[in-house]
Amino acid sequence: MSTATGRETLGFQTEVRQLLKLMIHSLYSNKEIFLRELISNASDAADKLRFEALAAPDLVSEDPDLTIRIESDKDQNTITVIDNGIGMSRDELVEHLGTIARSGTAEFLQQMTGDQQQDAQLIGQFGVGFYSAFIVADKVVVETRRAGLTVDEGVRWESDGEGEFTIENIERSARGTAVTLHLKDTESDFAELFRIESLIRKYSDHIAFPVMLAGTAEDEKEPKIVNAATALWTRSRSDIPDDEYKEFYKHLSHDFADPLTWSHNRVEGKREYTSLLYIPANAPFDLWNREAPRGLKLYVQRVFIMDEAEQFLPLYLRFVKGVVDSSDLPLNISRELLQQNPELTAMRGALTRRVLDMLSKMAANTPDDFSKFWVEFGQVLKEGFVEDQANKDKLAKLLRFATTHNGDTEQDQSLDDYVSRAGKDQDKIYYILAENHATAVASPHIESLAERGIEVLLLTDRIDPWLVDGLPPYEGKSFADVAREGLDLPAGEGQMTQDIMDGEHKPLLKKVKKVLKERVEAVHVSKRLVSSPACVVAGESELNPQLRRMLEASGQALPDSKPILEINVGHPLVDRLSAETDDDRFDALANIVLDHALLAEGSQLDNPADYVRRMNSLLLELDSDASSG
Fold first, then answer.
1. Would you identify the CATH topology of the domain 234-367?
2. Residues 332-354: pLDDT tens digits?
3. Domain 498-628 is in which class?
4. Which of 16, 69, 161, 531 could form a disulfide with 12 if both were Cys (CB 3.0 to 4.6 A apart)?
């Protein structure tokens, strides 16, 4: 770092250098979005000043009309975006333009593949903001003064985007920020006024502040307002074309992709507010960080109050983007006061239902879009069964599953689809929890159901063990885990009760239980097995094995639990076990049957060495029998 008369040369944060390099090489086909990003930043700065001026009117007394001005100089090959918003101090400038203060940045960068098209999409989800200027400029200069500071407290920031930036104190008469882009020789067409005007109309017409454009020629010096300068959500839905809704979403989210759907609604009566809610097409890179900033942009009487007001939607809808503009909340509302405001509960409930209704309409009217949504956000939506008791019925309609009906891995079957195919005497919806799709499809637990043509939901997402605990009965059918004891199957011809089945094979069950008493809770004859010799099931009051493994992996201490062993008395291996008269061989074979059942269920063996020893002995005996024969 070198310092001279307040001038410093600093290095970009490592993540910034990486992002700049990736962005410049990946966004070549989307380069014009730099202007949208810079105008969006200027609009945010004006919003923030207007909010701070509620408590400190002197901040805007010198220049009360908030505007955004763009000046083009074709001779110098520069574009300057100027706002008279909140501005930045020296420390804020270093913080905002030298670092990326976002959790998960490292993980985001690890997702970069080198494929420019895929990387462009990821960068769009991350949000490029100010740094997009370097797509078209080989040098960027920022001059700024924070509202409330004096003329001699201005700051200049300058960089070529390669690895360092310089910063120095300057005198600046105007508050706010001016960003000057020294365009690359190959990007000089962006200095043409007609090009700039077309980009403003395309990307920024919805900005609520006047966006003014001026050039250096004599007939261009008088700035003219280019945009509509009216907050989009305050206009009538019938007056807003779809393209404007899409561009406003990109302004809000800094996403490149169009949203899947949106809902623009005005509520009048006991409480008055306007909401504009969007469902993105792609999940953000930090979707699974539950601590990441989220929420809607809050306005009160069209005055910006805060970004990411998370109080208006539950956590499981954290992917929703949008604006809520209230006529009832006080202008001096804070995050703390918002939590205590009685209006909030009613608004939160109404906005949550509106989002779920949007998804229901998408599922009904544009199922392909809903399939895309489910791939991106389905697991997050499942969190609602834990967090949102009031909307479980609405959420259940939206669930999608992989099932044994079609055998593929796609989660594209609804509960309505399942119920429509269920037999008249079937009063259960059957499911199996497994580590992955292959394990679920091959599970011994579903053999009898598959043979009888009974469909099974294949649940393999990490959230699914919690999901099934929160699922209410659907269309009069309760949910049944096929890997739990006491499986209740639809009545079949000649079907016996568990007690009768166990009674017919009592000596064998008693002998197996004696051998395995330290490893299993009970041994029963199975009515769910067809081709497998045995399976293990969980007791009614026990945690399912998948949930137990996840909790133990997270470090939670759980009480000891033993599975229930079910054996298929029609299987040759069980016949061999039943006929075995040598106690040592019976002991080894019984343990091997249990080991194989545990492995098929997805569990790890407590003592793999014992299993290997038993198997080696059994193989040697078989080899000896074959030789003597």
1. Ribosomal Protein S5; domain 2 (3.30.230)
2. 666 666 666 777 888 999 999 99
3. mainly alpha
4. 16
